[in-house]
Structure formats: C-alpha cells, structure tokens
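Can't paste images in this forum, so I'm doing it all in text. The chain is below; anyone willing to post the predicted structure tokens underneath?
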Amino acid sequence: MIKLLKIELKKIRTYKIFWILAGLYFIFLVLGILMAEFMINNMVDNMNKHLPIPAPHMNIYFFPEVWQNMAFFATIRYVLIFPAIIIMILITNEFTFKTIRQNVVNGLSKSEFILSKLYIILLISVITTVFFALSTFIIGIAHTSEVTWGMIFDKISFVIGFFITILTFQIYAFFFGFMCRNTGLAIALFTLYTFIIEPILYYFLKSPLVFKNGISTYLPVNAVFRVTEYPTIPVLKKMMGLNLQESISWGGCALPLLYSAIMIGIVFWTLKKRDL
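Text version of the structure:
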C-alpha cells in the first residue's frame, strides 16, 4: 500500500491542476461550513415575509447538533463535485498520456494500478474527514456555552457519515473515469448524471403518476446523499413536516458502499478484459 501511494503522490506532486482543484474544494468546504447559518437564517427571513408569526433565527453551530448540521452542508453536490473531478482527471490522464502502459511495462500489474487510485481516494477521504472533524469541533466549542463530553460525542457518528459520503462519491467518479477514459467525457457524463439525470429520475419515480414504489430511495447518487439527509433545524419539522434524522443509519451507509464495491468490481473486470 505504501509503495503504491508513494508512486501516486510522486505523480501529483507537481501536478498544478490537482492542487488548484484541491484548494478550491477546501475553500468551498470552509465557506459551506462558515456560511451555513447565514444561508439558513436568510431563508427564514424570506419565509417570515409570508408568515403571520415570524420564525426565530437559527443557531446550528452548537453541540451535539453541529456534527449533523456541518456534515449535511459539507456534503452537498456542489461541494463534493471538486474531489470527484480531481479523481476523474487523475484517472483519465493515465489513458490520455499512456502512462498506464508505462506503469505496466515497469512492472506494475493492472490490479496494483487500480489499487493505487483507490488508495489515493482513501487518503483524500481521510485527510478531508480529519479537517472536517477538527473544524466542526472548534466551531462547536466556540458556539456552545456549557460543553460536556456527552454533548461532544452524542452525534459524532455523523463524522463517519461524512467519511462514507465523500469516499463513495469519489469511487463513483473513479468508475466514470475508468469507463470513459476521456477527461471531458467523464466529467460531462458524471456531472450530467449527478445534477440532472438522476434528480429528474428521482422525482419521476416519486410522482403520483407512477405506481407507488420506493425505488427512488435506492438510486446510486441519492443513496450517497441520504447518509446525512437533513440538518437539525426544528423549523423544517414544524413548517414542512419532515422527520428529521436523529442518527446515522448504518443500513443507509451500507447501500452506497455496496454500489461502490460493485463499481470497483466492474472496473477490475473491465480493465483486465480491455486493452490499455
């Protein structure tokens, strides 16, 4: 594992586009965390214009709810698309510049090549999760008047939910990168499916015009974003009748991991069958 990681890190050390996209991702991640409360209260202000009794402003940065709230805002599609694009570029460039052939000629097996990319995905996920956990912990400490260990650890499982979300979303991008082998095509198809095709399919399957079913729940991208489904905002329950998520559903976490395992298996099988 260490050997394969060193090979990948050596490749990206001087790769400017990687560091630019990584920097943009962390900037948007920080902005998403810091501006979440402002965006929510702006929504509340807009709702209050049409309500006889104004709803109060929200504080979402206190323990233990801060873990759930920050996990939700840090895993919206528009933020996670950056690490996904990074992974697709890293993979498709191997085919564009024929470096995958050179790696195999130099003694790296096809399986090791795939594993090296998965290790990079795992490393990015771990680093991002540590950054997320530390940032959320500091924000929670700063906004909670009387902190106890029980409050801190009450909803800390959402950190695991964040890790599973970013890990599986990157694996989906890994799948598109290997299947398409072209940077522009991979990014276009992945973005099209994530932001347009699946959301349309999701609402179509939920439509009363379609026979009653729960298929939309099991769509791949939807399964990822259902790991942390809603932030802990009481007004969502009172005004919109939503059943707020109290904890991470381990069954819900298993579904995107299952999709990821299937995609990895398809990539292994395909790369062994197809020419480089």
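The two ends are 23 Å apart (CA to CA). Residues 110-143 form the longest helix (34 residues).
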